[in-house]
């Protein structure tokens, strides 16, 4: 070795590599990975060209659904078309300032959340995290234990007794502790 700046382990590793026969070297060589489909066909011109990951997610979702729900050109094909259209909508055009759009999409909601925080000033009964702390909690830390968890669940409007079913689901998903339902504790013990 003439290069004194390299680590001695480098030279040891190089020697081990040179001592390997061709068959052993093959297992360490990088396998060719085919280019993704969107690199060959532009989604703007070929409707239905999506990346492999989204295609896999879509297909696994459709397989998980009951098979008898779909027949011929029905909901299954419509669902795939909607996913393809949404994918096409979400693409940014070359040269579009995506960094600026990302900053805008964070800045506008955080400003609105901060303004909404002041509506609850002086109200002790409002125990919610709002504004920048809430945005930081959601985006930056991605904590599993959010201080103010919330969920929006859409329901189909054609369901009968929708309000009762929604309330029942809310009660099932709501965490109830003993202190929430216990009014008084009397402990009596005798020896």
From TrEMBL:
UniProt keyword terms in alphabetical order: DNA-directed RNA polymerase, Nucleotidyltransferase, Transcription, Transferase
Known EC number: 2.7.7.6
InterPro entries for this protein: DNA-dir_RpoC_beta_prime, RNA_pol_Rpb1_5
Top-rank taxon, per record: Eukaryota
Domain RNA polymerase Rpb1: 74-173
Pfam families in the record: RNA_pol_Rpb1_5
Ranges in a coiled coil: none
Keyword Transcription regulation carried by entry: no
CC annotations in GO: RNA polymerase I complex
Statement: the UniProt record of this protein carries the keyword Transferase: yes
GO MF, one example: DNA binding
Signal peptide (residue range): none
GO process terms (BP): DNA-templated transcription
Regions crossing the membrane: none
Family membership noted in the UniProt record: Belongs to the RNA polymerase beta' chain family.
Name of the protein in its database record: DNA-directed RNA polymerase
UniProt organism field: Tricrista advena advena
